[in-house]
Amino acid sequence: MVGRPQKPKPREFYRDGDIRFVEEGVPLPGGGFKTKGIVRHPGAVVIIPVDATGHLLVLRQYRHALGQWIVEFAAGTRELNEDPLQCAQREIREECGVAASDWGLLGILYASPGFCDETQHVYLARGLTPDRRPADDDEQIEALRVSPAEFAEWIARGRVQDAKTLAAYAVWRGQGRTTK
């Protein structure tokens, strides 16, 4: 008697900190399983900092995987089981050199759901005050202050190509937000 195919056990084949690369059995619609590579990610945050004058704080950051500098919102990977808001509060200090007294969750993004379970919590941060914390030792970052209109122009001209930044900006603007 032929039984149902058994789901293969997940196999971790690489780990980079809390990010795990695994092979898992994915069920097929017609039955059986296909082995697929999946990135298991602890999650991340994306922060849209808006200062008292309505300007955005954005980053010009060197990204080694691309071999170039890009413009993006502050963001960071959550530590294992870290609360997303606590992560955002840590990251804004490390990357932008400010703290925020007013936080709002704008939404959640899935970075690459075809092969990665990363969930990105998007926050609006206001009530900014200087508060610098040491950045990660592998980060090369320059904080920039830009008006929302100028940032929109950067997007229109293709100067902003980072997917999480473009998606977070769309969520913010889609909610009718500018400086509010």
Give an overview in words:
β2 (19-27) and β3 form a beta hairpin. The relative contact order is 0.19. The chain is elongated and about 65 Å long. The protein is α+β, with helices and mostly antiparallel strands. The chain is built from 3 helices and 10 strands; from the N terminus they run βββββββαβββαα. The chain has helices spanning 84-96, 148-156, 163-174, and strands at 11-16, 19-27, 33-40, 44-49, 56-63, 68-72, 74-77, 98-110, 119-130, 141-146. Helices cover 19% and strands 43% of the residues. It has a 4-stranded mixed beta sheet with strand order 7-4-9-8, sandwiched between helices. Strands 1-2-3 form a 3-stranded antiparallel beta sheet, with no helix packed on it. The chain has a 3-stranded antiparallel beta sheet with strand order 6-5-10. The protein folds into 2 domains: 11-40, no CATH class; 44-174, Nucleoside Triphosphate Pyrophosphohydrolase (Alpha-Beta Complex).
